[in-house]
Amino acid sequence: MTHPADLFMDLWRRLQERRNEVRTLAHGLEVDHARTGRLADEAAERLRQGAPALEEWAGSEWAGLRLDRTLAAAQAIDAWFAPLASRYDVRADDPLPAERLEALRRLNRDGRFNADPADGQLILRPGLLARAMNIRETAPPDGHPEDFDPVDLFASLLVVPPGLTIEAERDGDPDRRIAVEYRRIAAVSDQNPGDPAWRPVIGVVPLAQAEDDLPIRRFHRDGEDWYDPTPRDFGRRAADAVAGLAAQGATFILFPEVSAGPETVSAIQQALRAQAVGGPIRYALVGVKEEVAGRPRNRAILLDRCGRMAGSQTKLHCWDLDSNQCRSYDLRDRNGRLLDCAREDIETGDRFILFELPDLGRLAVAICEDLGRTEPSAWIASGMMVDWLVTPVMDSGLTTERWQAKEGAASSRAGYCRVIVVNSMALSHRFNRTCRANGEEDKVIGACGVALLFQPRASQASAPHIQCLTLPLSDPAPGYVYSRWTPDDWPALPDPEGDE
Which residue intervals define the domain CN hydrolase in the entry (predicted)? Predict the structure, then answer.
C-alpha cells in the first residue's frame, strides 16, 4: 500500500519539474481563497480515505495531471505530518494511525520518512527550536521568480536532496555537485533541546593563542603563492581546557578551525572520556588539519561525550587571500616579499551533512568561507531546518562589525537558528604587527574576540541578540571562555559595517 510519505515524494518531483507553473499557480491561490479552501478540503477528505484515494484524486502523468490538485495533495500530506513538527499541534482526530506508526518506525530505523533513499531524505522541516516556538510559517510566492522554491509552500516536511550544486572552488572553474546527507544519531537523551527554557553552556577553546602556535607555511607552486597553516601539538592545553569547562558545566565545547592535529585530538578524546560519567559535556566540535591520500584536509570532527567520533564535516570552499588580507596578516615569502595573494592549500569536501543529535538538536557546520558562500548556507537558512549553525574560523579577532557578524546574523535571522562563530587568536598577533608598522594603534587588538553567539528574534525583521566572548591577547589564561545561553540578557546586534 502506498504510504503518504512516498506519495509526497512523487508529488514533490512533479512540482520541482514544473516550478515556474507552480509559482504562478501558488500566486493565484494566494488570492483565490474559495478555490484554495475547496482544494484543501477535498484533498484532506481523500487522505482520510487513504493515500491511494488521494493519489487517484491528484491524477498522474498518464491519467491526466491537474497541477492544482498535485499541490493540494502534497500540502494535505504536509498537514498530516504537522503533529510531528510542532509541540502545539495535537489533534484528537488522527487519520491513518497505522501509516503514522510506520512513518515513525521509518524515521527511527532509516532516518527518513520515505522508502527509497535515491529520491533523497524526507524529514521534518523545522528544527527543535522552530518547533518549540511554533515557527512553521511558509513563504508567499512573491519576490523574484528565480528566488521561488516549492519548499516554501510546505511547513512540516522538507526533502533533503541527494545533492546540491555549489560554487566553483576557484574563479573560472565549473560549479560543483556535492552530496547531501541527513544523519540522525539515536541515543538516550537526558536533556530537552526543544524546551524554550533549556539553557546550555557553550565553551570555546582557542588553542592557538600565540602567533607561533599556528605556523603558516608559504610556498610557490604552479606559478602561484599558497599558504598552509599547521597547528602545533597542544594536547595538555586542550585536556586542561576540557576539564576546566566540565567544571563550569559546559554542554557543548568548540575548538576553532585548524586547531588540532592527531595528538591533540587524542588528548581531547581522553579528557572527554574522563568526564563521561556524570559530567556535563555532551559534544565537542574540533577543527582539525589532517592528511588524506597525501592531500591536506580542513575538517571539523564531532565527538560525543565519551570521545567517540560521531561525524565530521570537510571544508567545502577554499579561503583564498587577496592583497589586503595578505597585508593584514603579514604574509611574506621566504625572501620577505609581501604576497599579493595566496591560495589555501586544501582538498575541499564533496559532502554536506546535517546531524540530528540527542541532547543538542539539529546541527550544521559551515567552516569559515563556507558561511559566506551561497550554498549550502542559503539552502540551510531557507528551510529553517537546523537548531545550530556552527562556524569554526581562523581569523583576526571577531567583532560585531566584521563579515562574520554580518553573515552569522543573516543566517540566524533567515534560518531561525542559533549561530556560533568560533575563532583562534594566532592571526590577531600578525594583524597587530601590521597595524603598529602602519601607525594604526587605534586598530590594535587588545581583547581578542574568540566567539560570537547569535540568537534569532521572533520577527525576522529584528536583529538577533548577540554575545561576543573575548580573551586578553597578552594573557589569555585560562585559555577558554564559556557562556550560558541566556539571549534575553544579550544586546541586539548593531548594523554591521564593512565586509573585510
Answer: 237-391
In the numeric block, the cell 484528537 is attached to 92
Distances (CA, A) of 251 to 133, 161, 473, 484: 22, 31, 26, 9
Alpha carbon separation from 283 to 31, 179, 280, 289, 449 (Å, rounded): 48, 25, 9, 19, 22
pLDDT tens digit string along 241-274?
A: 999 999 999 999 999 999 999 999 999 999 999 9
Cell numbers found for residue 373: 558562500
In this predicted model, what pLDDT tens digit does every residue of 114-148 receive, in sequence order? 999 999 999 998 888 777 766 555 555 655 556 67
Q: Are residues 189 and 156 in the same domain?
A: no
- The verdict on 74 and 190 lying in the same domain is no
**383 and 243 co-located in one domain:** yes
pLDDT tens digits for 30-59?
Answer: 999 999 999 999 999 999 999 999 999 998
The interaxial angle of helices 19-31 and 33-49, nearest 10 deg, is 110
Helices 67-80 & 33-49, crossing angle to 10 degrees?
Answer: 60
If we measure between CA atoms, which residue out of 170, 166, 190, 195 comes closest to residue 179? 166
| 450 touches 204 (CB < 8 A) | yes
Instruction: Among 132, 160, 188, give the residue marking a domain's end.
Output: 160
* 170-222 tens-digit pLDDT: 777 889 999 999 999 888 888 888 787 899 999 999 999 999 999 999 999 99
Per-residue pLDDT tens over the stretch 366-423: 999 999 887 787 777 767 689 999 999 999 999 998 988 999 888 888 778 899 999 9
Do 120 and 263 have their domain in common? no
CA end-to-end span of the chain, whole Å?
Answer: 56
Full domain range(s) for residue 153: 4-160
Residues 139, 184, single domain; the answer is no
* Three cell numbers written together for 412: 540566524
Angle at 158 between CA 153 and CA 159, to 5 degrees: 115
- Is 23 within the bounds of a domain? yes
Assess whether 155 and 198 both reside in one domain. Answer: no
Q: Are 469 and 204 within 8 A, CB to CB?
A: yes
Angle 416-422-423 from CA coordinates, rounded to 5°: 150
Q: What b/e sequence results for 214-244 when a residue is b if at least 16 CB atoms lie within 10 Å of its CB, and e otherwise?
A: bebebeeeeeebbbbbebbebbebbbbbbeb
Residue 412 confidence (pLDDT):
87
> Considering its fold, how many domains does the chain have in total?
2
Q: Which residue has the cell 585530538?
A: 265
Q: 322, 355, 312, 377: which is closest to 167 by C-alpha?
A: 377
Global pTM exceeds 0.90: yes
pLDDT at 499: 43
